[in-house]
Design goal:
By secondary structure, this protein is of the alpha+beta class. It contains four helices and three strands; from the N terminus they run E-H-H-E-E-H-H. Strands 1-2-3 form a three-stranded mixed sheet.
């Protein structure tokens, strides 16, 4: 499990928190009122995450789509609906 720290703790000692995340290459979940609100990651970890994301989307962009039975609008609507459902479920926790 990822280590958690409250937003108040981060605010009290931001420099040391950032230094620790960078030095240890860890991901630190920032919570507020007991709920996760952000994640601190070392910059090189963030760069790797972006590169992996670009690679994944490049793969998806190169998939053949002309034979799919759904329009781009239908797919986007499904994605938006799924995102709303996940967000609603997250907020209810």
């Amino acid at each position: 499990m990822l280590r958690q720290i409250t937003l108040e703790q981060v605010a009290l000692d931001l420099q040391n928190t950032v230094d620790e995340v960078n030095r240890n290459h860890e991901h630190l979940v920032v919570t507020q009122n007991g709920k996760p609100v952000a994640v601190l990651v070392a910059y090189d970890s963030y760069q790797r995450l972006l590169a992996a994301r670009r690679q994944a989307f490049a793969y998806l962009d190169n998939l053949p789509t002309r034979d799919l039975p759904y329009s781009e609008e239908e797919v986007e609507a499904d994605i938006e609906r799924a995102m709303r459902e996940v967000r609603a479920e997250y907020k209810s926790k």
